[in-house]
Specification:
The complex is a heterodimer of chains A (401) and B (198). With 401 residues, chain A is mainly α. Chain A has one domain. Chain A has 13 helices and two strands; from the N terminus they run αααββαααααααααα. With 198 residues, chain B is α+β, with helices and mostly antiparallel strands. Chain B has a single domain, classed as Alpha-Beta Plaits (2-Layer Sandwich). Chain B is 15% helix and 12% strand. Chain B has five helices and five strands, in the order αβαββαβαβα. The chains are: A mainly alpha (401), B alpha+beta (198). At the A-B interface, helix 1 and helix 11 of A face helix 1 of B.
């Protein structure tokens, strides 16, 4: 298990140099994430306008690439507006509750392999805590508070409706999210993101396919994770939180200036972060088909692979937004509770069964088959129980509702 | 494929040279689309070819204006230097373009076709006083063309084809006179001859 040693080798000896290196890493990560947000806003606007027969921003800088910077600067100079009936402390706090976790959850993403600074070897990731991926789940849990409190403290009805929707949606999709992460953790045997990436390195089946979790776990947890993350991010087609046609702007209606900018920042930062986490969990993070032993390429190539993979998902999010219409609220809840959670649970059961099976192909098949039977039995019993409950409620009206 | 068809559609649109992918955006400030034939823009006060103003200060336009944006005061023509033919002329003429809805009723009401609407609508003033066009700004120049104000964005031809049309000259309905411009033949810059059903 020496391969799965937890923790950054940098922290073996803590002195001034270590502190300085950590500080530099923090600042660089913060900068990279901020720039990636600016880029993502521009990228989304440009791609979606391409898909909608439009031109998109193209005045500020070459191809309009400075547009989001200009928008950001403008927002920060606008008047900060406080509604009369707002709870002003919570109202001021909420944007930070949304933006800070968005940044913090990027801290655990391994961007590349190792790098040597001042004779110290360190991972190309800000932090590698032993609880790794739980940190991401924690932070997305805290981010719900930002949205919820923003809507509640605004003292206005549309933000309140938006935030109630948001918290219900984010809480229910977090279950499916956690369950698909659980199956990744199951095959890795560690929560650390660095270990998750290491475990996916190297050649996989027949030396053709990579050893990535998307293949090892047979696609299902990946799809569940992708859908759940889209809902968790409140991105289309799950953007009921800010459904313009129903709720004005949703939870951020009463915000202006820096507050609004922070929500916007958090939304896009989360999009980038979650794309990076999907890559980490299912697509082997910085692992790629070919490595070089040249000193610079040795650490630069994995970063290139990582960024390329993240790009795919950023594009997919924009593509989803351009293509799919918004779900109705009951469809959203049905998809979360009745489809994604049972599928994720059932798949977790099957993977767990294969993991504990004795080391032979026949016993693996037997265990997996048994797990499938159990999963279906549970699903049948559950749906029967729900149907029975509905019938009884229909028979005696005082029981229902 | 049902659900996935939509993804193919949006992806295909990224190729701007395909059938459905052509960019429809017109690059507005640089390139303007041709305006509709009967577009209503800002007003102009016309003059006769000899320089006399057409406005006789009757205030009918102010009376008919539903937005109450026109302010007119008439005065007696000075006998030695008349401004308009006849007894009276428009002494004060102001239009508040923050209120004007460009309904063209003033043009309909004007007995001398002094006021018409051009196709110019692109003005962005930074001061409310600039929004109130006074008589000196509304009256056409010596060539009969509207004056361009600093905050207006004009293109070649924007001042042609004003909303004033030569009147149908057969109020009695007699077919002999239909479609023939008679007394209003010299209505000023940009006024078009009548079309058959008028």
């Amino acid at each position: 298990m020496s391969l799965l040693a937890v923790g950054d080798p940098l922290l073996n000896k803590v002195d001034l140099v270590t502190v300085l290196i950590v500080l530099v890493k923090t600042v660089v990560t913060f900068g990279v994430v901020l720039v990636s947000v600016l880029f993502m806003v521009w990228f989304e606007r440009k791609i979606i306008s391409d898909m909608q027969n439009r031109v998109g921003p193209d005045y500020a800088g070459p191809w309009g690439i400075l547009q989001s910077l200009a928008d950001g600067v403008k927002l920060f100079f606008k008047e900060g507006f406080l509604p009369d009936r707002a709870d002003h402390r919570v109202y001021r706090l909420a944007p930070y509750l949304s933006a800070v976790p968005a940044f913090l959850s990027f801290a655990i993403v391994p961007v590349g392999g190792q790098i040597t600074i001042a004779h110290r070897v360190t991972y190309l990731q800000l932090a590698d805590p032993p609880f790794g991926i739980l940190w991401m789940l924690c932070m997305s849990g805290v981010a719900v508070y930002g949205v919820m409190l923003a809507g509640w403290s605004s003292g206005s009805k549309y933000p309140l409706l938006g935030s109630v929707r948001a918290s219900a949606q984010m809480v229910s999709y977090e279950a499916a999210l956690g369950l698909s992460v659980a199956s990744v953790v199951l095959v890795t045997g560690s929560l650390s993101t660095h270990d998750i990436v290491l475990q996916q390195a190297g050649a996989g089946i027949r030396h053709i396919l990579p050893n990535w979790n998307i293949i090892q776990l047979a696609l299902v947890p990946f799809v569940v994770f992708l859908i759940a993350v889209t809902a968790e991010l409140n991105r289309p087609p799950f953007d009921l939180v800010e459904a313009e046609s129903e709720l004005v702007g949703g939870f951020n209606t009463e915000y202006s200036s820096i507050g609004f900018a922070l929500f916007y920042l958090a939304e896009f930062m989360n999009t980038v972060t979650m794309s990076a986490i999907i890559v980490t969990l299912f697509l082997g993070g910085p692992s790629g088909p070919w490595y070089s032993t040249a000193p610079i390429l040795n650490w630069a190539l994995p970063i290139v692979y990582f960024v390329a993979k993240v790009f795919i998902f950023l594009f997919v999010y924009v593509w989803l937004r351009a293509t799919l219409p918004r779900l109705r609220y009951d469809q959203l809840m049905d998809l979360g509770w009745k489809v994604l959670i049972p599928v994720a649970l059932g798949w977790l059961l099957v993977i767990a069964a294969i993991r504990i099976a004795p080391n032979s192909n026949t016993s693996r098949f037997a265990y997996a088959g048994g797990a499938v039977v159990v999963a279906f039995a549970c699903y049948f019993m559950l749906s029967r129980a729900v149907a029975l409950g509905r019938e009884r409620a229909a028979e005696s009206p005082e029981l229902g509702r | 494929m049902g659900l996935l068809d939509g993804f193919a559609v949006t992806l295909k649109k990224m190729n701007h040279s395909s059938d459905t992918g052509a960019v429809v955006t017109s690059r507005y400030p640089e390139v303007k689309r041709p305006k509709p034939e009967r577009f209503h823009g800002r007003h102009v006060l016309n003059r006769y070819e000899d320089g006399m103003e057409k406005c006789i200060g009757c205030e009918l336009c102010a009376g008919v204006c539903p937005a109450r944006c026109i302010h007119v005061r008439g005065a007696d023509n000075p006998p030695d230097a008349p401004v308009a033919p006849g007894e009276r002329y428009g002494f004060v003429y102001e239009i508040n373009f923050l209120r004007c809805i460009h309904c063209d009723l003033c043009v309909e009401a004007c007995p001398t076709e002094a006021i018409t609407e051009s196709k110019m609508f692109e003005f962005s003033f930074t001061d409310r006083h600039d929004a109130i066009y006074t008589k000196s700004e509304l009256v056409v120049d010596d060539e009969g063309r509207p004056r361009e104000l600093p905050w207006e964005d004009w293109r070649e031809g924007d001042d042609e084809e004003t909303s004033g049309w030569m009147r149908a000259t057969s109020p009695s309905g007699s077919a002999t006179y239909e479609g023939r411009p008679l007394w209003s033949a010299e209505l000023g810059y940009g006024v078009r001859p009548p079309e058959p059903p008028q």
